[in-house]
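Justification of resources, computational component.

The compute hours requested in this renewal are based largely on the per-chain cost of generating structure records like the one below. Each record pairs the submitted sequence with a full structure-token output. That output is archived, and it is also reused by downstream analysis tasks.
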Amino acid sequence: MYKSIRMPEEFVKEVKEVAEREYRTVPQQIMYWAELGRQNELRKWQLQEMEEGLEQIKEGNVVSHEEVQNRIKQTLSQWQEKQ
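The structure output for this chain reads:
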């Protein structure tokens, strides 16, 4: 299923130029750029999570792998009870 959207003319012109060079359609090019943006956001989130984890280690706020698994199981159980 497809949906039409309105975009600025200059942006569409740029997309068309790049799409032709990369042998993609305009929708494929937009989707490609969107995927790159998603991946970038995921990397930023992962880096932030790692930085927070390192900070917790420096502060001595560390839990074992087993404790993390137990917390996950507990959270899942609580979530399933609400369903």
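The chain has one domain: 9-82. The helical segments are 9-21, 26-59, 65-82.
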